[in-house]
Amino acid sequence: MSSVPGSSASGRQRIVVLSGPSGSGKTTIVHRLLKDSPAPLRMSVSATTRPMRKGEVDGRDYYFLPPEEFERRRQAGEFLEWAEVHKSGFWYGTLWSEVDRAREAGAWPLLEVDVQGALNVMARYPDAVSIFLMTPSVDEYEQRLRGRGTEDDAVIQRRLQTAREELKLADCYRYRVINDDLDRAVAEICGLLADEAKQTCTTS
Ligand code: 5GP
Predict the structure, then answer these.
(1) What total number of domains does the chain contain?
(2) What is the pLDDT of residues 43-87, one digit of tens each?
(3) How far is the CA of 204 from the centre of ligand 1 (A)?
(4) Is residue 64 one of the residues assigned to a domain?
(5) Which atom number of ligand 1 is nearest to the Cα of residue 21?
(6) How far apart are CA 153 and CA 155, in angstroms?
(7) What is the per-residue pLDDT for 158?
(8) Atom of ligand 1 nearest to the CA of 47
(9) Residues with CB under 6 A from ligand 1
């Protein structure tokens, strides 16, 4: 691990930030990108204080931390960014160690973070490849959220409200991709990553 967080960065490796409202299909897209991307992506596993869901694995889906441990690490400067997501009372953050690990392996760290986190990463890394994933309409977000069946109504309402607020910030991202069709959206993202990889090779 590098002594200065992020210092293992080379000009040839970009940070990829993917955001989008809950139910916009981020998780599925992420899995596809990790397989198909023309740029060498590596997932950054976030830390969170939210409880583990059924089927999740500590260290694979998230590092599940007690709030005190999250706070201790935050104060110790271990996070590139952090945020309380969806006004849920739970904290989420990107660990420098994850970013450094990807870069040391020659890969581009892929961060799946909320809008607040993404804006903080973009402020620090203006050349980040930021992608905002959208579903065609707020009604469709709602249908997807309900279809997932993992959250109760109050949580869904809160997430829809966050979704409406997040949509207003979509313009801050370098790219906006509509997930109307999974294969098409993955192909579009692969195309833009290929372009970014080409530019990265020629400018560094
Ligand atoms: P979930 O609790 O459903 O796994 O994730 C809720 C939201 O937290 C997701 O929409 C995701 O974008 C966001 N999130 C996950 N990891 C991070 C992180 O490290 N930082 C920030 N800012 N948001 C995150």
Answers:
(1) 1
(2) 999 999 999 999 999 999 999 999 999 999 999 999 999 999 877
(3) 31
(4) yes
(5) 10
(6) 5
(7) 87
(8) 19
(9) 19, 22, 46, 50, 81, 83, 85, 92-94, 112-114, 116-117
Using the atom order of ligand 1, give the atom closest to the CA of residue 22.
Answer: 10
For residue 30, how far is its CA from the centre of ligand 1 (angstroms)? 13
Instruction: Classify residue 61 by its DSSP letter.
Output: T
Task: Please report, for the domain that includes residue 77, its CATH number.
Answer: 3.40.50.300
Higher local confidence (pLDDT), 86 or 142: 142
Contacts of 108 (CB under 8 A, 6+ apart): 13, 14, 15, 16, 39, 40, 41, 42, 102, 129
- DSSP helix/strand/coil, 6: coil
pLDDT reported for residue 2: 41
User: Do the domain assignments include residue 72?
Assistant: yes
Tell whether 1 is covered by a domain: no
Give the residue whose CA is nearest to atom 23 of ligand 1: 113
Is residue 53 in some structural domain? Answer: yes
Give 89-137 pLDDT, tens digit per residue. Answer: 999 999 999 999 999 999 999 999 999 999 999 999 999 999 999 887 8
> Which residue range(s) make up the domain with 131?
16-199
State the Cα–Cα distance between residues 63 and 71, nearest whole angstrom.
14
pLDDT in tens, 177-196: 999 899 999 999 999 999 99
Residue with tokens 């994850």: 98
